[in-house]
Amino acid sequence: MIKMRKITHSDVVFSPEDLIIVAGISLQTAYKIIKELNQELEEINKKEKKSYIIFRAKIWRKFFRERYYDEKFLTINDLEKKFKIKEWEAKEIHSTIKKELLERGFRFIKGRIPEKAVLEKIYDYSEERVKNENTSKTLKF
What is the rounded distance in angstroms from the CA atom of residue 93 to the CA atom of residue 74? Predict the structure, then answer.
């Protein structure tokens, strides 16, 4: 028997309150981010003849991840504590990752970087590498 998981509204969209928790930002900044992303969705709807549903004070969780790379964020202080490194090392990691992700077209929340990008950088852990490792583990007869 397959057990179906009920998908709730908060699994699909972010409210400003969700962004406050996820990104550790103010309510005003959360509304600003949602407004900017909704404007971008409106432009996509017009240019590409898409029909994304746009909420007044919410944003699609998937679209947020596409623009900001992840849902979990770290500050420089978080980097220092989590990885037990010095402030200058945390700042160097922060600026390097920010530069790389900006070049790839991602957006940023001031003073924060995606945790996923940090883990990829520190542990050389990327999705492509994981896929390659998983395919190489298959048995060949």
Answer: 11
CB 67 within 8 A of CB 106: yes
Q: Which residues touch 74 (CB under 8 Å, ≥6 apart)?
A: 82, 112, 113, 114, 115, 118
Q: Which residues contact 59 (CB under 8 A, 6 or more apart)?
A: 13, 14, 33, 34, 37, 38
Q: Quote the CA–CA distance of 107 and 68 in Å, as a whole number.
A: 5
Is the pTM here over 0.85, yes or no? Answer: no
CA 76/CA 88 separation, integer angstroms: 9
Q: Which ranges constitute the DSSP H helices of the chain?
A: 9-12, 16-23, 27-48, 61-68, 76-83, 87-103, 115-123, 127-136
For the packed helices 27-48 and 61-68, what is the interaxial angle rounded to 10 degrees? 100
Burial class for 131, CB neighbours closer than 10 Å (0-12, 13-18, 19+): exposed
Q: What is the mean pLDDT of residues 34-56?
A: 89
Of the chain, the end-to-end C-alpha distance in Å amounts to: 33
pLDDT digits (tens, 9 = 90+) for 119-135: 888 777 555 555 555 44
The span from the CA of 112 to the CA of 80, in Å, is 13
